[in-house]
Write a structure and sequence with these properties.
The protein is an alpha+beta fold. It has 6 helices and 9 strands, in the order βαββαββααββαββα. It has a single domain, classed as Alpha-Beta Plaits, CATH 3.30.70.
Length: 224
């Protein structure tokens, strides 16, 4: 696959009625869904995360990278027609473009989480929108606040981040994704960031999806 340009976070909820189907039918449905993911692997890279038992509204989170939104749409539609996908509801879907940061001139591996390296145990992802007042500030003032944000982030090397741009394409302005092996450290990072000046310009940063990285087979098996 060429370098991805688009990312989608797709959170799915399974109809409880599906779990009451015979085991053989459920296994057949899981296999059809699994095969559909593999069929589009050349166009869409998929990372699987389990949320079964953690959230009331979603049991599977797929982070999907593609060269175009067309490829994402077509493959998402196919997934929802394949096997257990027919029993799934889209609880959340965030779409954004992978573009260079306005505030980081030379992003390191810590700012490019999910695109390279090995996956960490946990994913935390949420939609993010700034207030209108943020954009009324001068570029220098905004850069200064972001420099503080970046500096604090670098104090927590156990946490990696991916930022995607959704402005004009989705309800949120950004998709913010973090991965870490230590949720307590991530919580410390979030607490530190809440003390920054830039925090006052946050309009929306929910829902927060916390999920566990699993091979696709394992994540599907937890559905029932």
């Amino acid at each position: 696959m060429s370098a991805p340009e688009v990312v989608q976070v797709l959170a799915l909820q399974v109809d409880p009625a599906w779990r009451r189907l015979p085991a053989s039918q459920r296994e057949e449905d899981l296999d059809a869904f699994r095969q559909q993911v593999r069929t589009t692997a050349g166009e869409v890279q998929t990372l699987a995360y389990a949320t079964a038992g953690l959230r009331a509204d979603a049991e599977l989170v797929l982070v999907r990278f593609a060269v175009s939104v067309d490829a994402l749409q077509e493959s998402s539609s196919a997934l929802l027609r394949a096997g257990v996908g027919r029993f799934m509801r889209v609880a959340h879907s965030f779409v954004g473009l992978l573009r260079p940061s306005r505030y980081v001139k030379r992003p390191g591996t810590q700012e490019q989480g999910l695109l390279d390296g090995e996956r960490a145990a946990y994913l935390i992802v949420y939609p993010f929108t700034k207030t209108h007042d943020w954009y009324r500030l001068s570029p220098d003032v905004r850069q200064g606040m972001m420099n503080e944000h970046i500096r604090i982030g670098h104090d927590f090397p156990q946490v990696r981040q991916l930022l995607a741009y959704s402005t004009g394409l989705d309800d949120q302005e950004f998709i913010v994704a973090y991965e870490t092996d230590d949720l307590a450290v991530f919580q410390d990072l979030v607490t530190a960031l809440r003390d920054t000046e830039g925090r006052r310009y946050t309009l929306r940063d929910q829902p927060i999806l916390t999920a566990i990285h699993r091979p696709l087979d394992d994540a599907l098996r937890q559905l029932g």
